[in-house]
What does this fold into?
Amino acid sequence: MPDRAGGDNAGVDYVAAIDQGTTSTRCMVFDATGSIVSVAQREHRQSYPRPGWVEHDAEEIWANTVAVVTEALGTTRPVAVGITNQRETVVVWDAVTGRPVHPAIVWQDTRTGDLAAALDPDLFRERTGLPPSTYFSGPKLRWLLDHVDGLPARAERGEVLAGTMDSWLIWRLTGRHVTDVTNASRTMLMDLRTCDWDTALLDRIGVPRAVLPEIRPSAEVYGTGGPGGPLAGVPVASALGDQQAALVGQACYAPGDMKSTYGTGAFLLLHTGGTPVASTHGLLTTVAYQLGDAPVQYALEGSIAVSGALVQWFRDNLGLIRTAAEIEALASTVDDNGGCYLVPAFSGLFAPHWRPDARGVLAGLTAYVTKAHLARAVLEATAWQTREVVDAMRADAPLAVHDLRVDGGMTANALLMQILADVLDVPVVRPWVAETTCLGAAYAAGLAVGFWPDVDRLRANWQEDARWRPAMDPARREREYAMWRRAVARTLDWA
It folds into this structure.
């Protein structure tokens, strides 16, 4: 693989993708087969000014974007560029100068707890598919309006603009103030059915429509890179929230297709088709994507707070392994967990429980248990949490799920992948190109400019790298799941 596009590949067409993530920004270049041609990445600072507050410097992120695009492209001019991003992080900037009025408030930030708690949960779930939460963008924007001097008046006069990180980058690149339906669906301000800003919700949270971007499809030419910029003349042709981008990159284009991304936490999305499915089992209803003029597609989402972070805890806090990769070999020395179950509710449980009062529990310890059994329990924790979310998805949307497509750093752990297949009782499949978030943004941009003709071509691009099939006795599966649920019950009512 070459270090960068260009050189011997001059004259060959490529599509680029910018992935603006929580800890870094990167640019990747793909060819027509969906193979990676080049990549560049830079981290940005994490700021924690008060307990529970998390902020980013949007100007630093923009500077890093320019740097990684320049490095990854070299002398190549791609036919289009797509953007994928950390979804609920909010920035407000001057409409003329582009200068941010305050550091960006990151999706992890919890300063809006009181504001979110005062909102009507039934209204917001019915219209947006989301419960009021510090997680989402709308309350963060309200906090900025309340705490930045003079900002409400400037907002009403149209002197400032607001948006998630996709909007920030698109505006800096093209001068257009737009967002896509997937990012808009995470604000608590967009009606899921009309895919437009909802006046009643704007009034309830107190956000003026004038500051918000225009909502557009996920695959569309929003504009071209401005003169002198890193993408001068290049169509900026897609935007997708990171988890929806992974869904597109995994070629999950039909109802029943399901993917899970395993990183620090885990995010599962189930494609549910052209009508939003209201969850009654602790999941989020969200937009999956909209490709051009095609109908909007929807998904159910379940988020797990701690998966890869549990391996880091096992390594750093307990010191039982030296590197994260060692956990697979250690756990493989035993056939089971020795009767112990580890529930990593370090700061509460996410889907499908949504219990902020929960705290972590290690249950079932006996003198028989060794560090190898604990290592196995660490891996099983991710698998059982996934099972809980998948069961909720099956209850909300009784679709035929044929397999689970996986991506993210934890998929390198073959033992974990086998445990996942065993507890879910469906095959687990890892694709050849694991960078599905960037690939999804590239695919959407390529569709928008005709680089790829349709999603059937993208399905043909998708290639399987490895597959794990269920091999666990059904009776054992259900017995161990029942024990896991007993352990989860012991995490509740701690905080």
User: Anything to note?
Assistant: Residues 371-396 form the longest helix (26 residues). The chain has a mean pLDDT of 94. DSSP finds 16 helices and 23 strands in the chain. Residues 7-216 form a domain with the Nucleotidyltransferase; domain 5 fold (CATH 3.30.420.40).
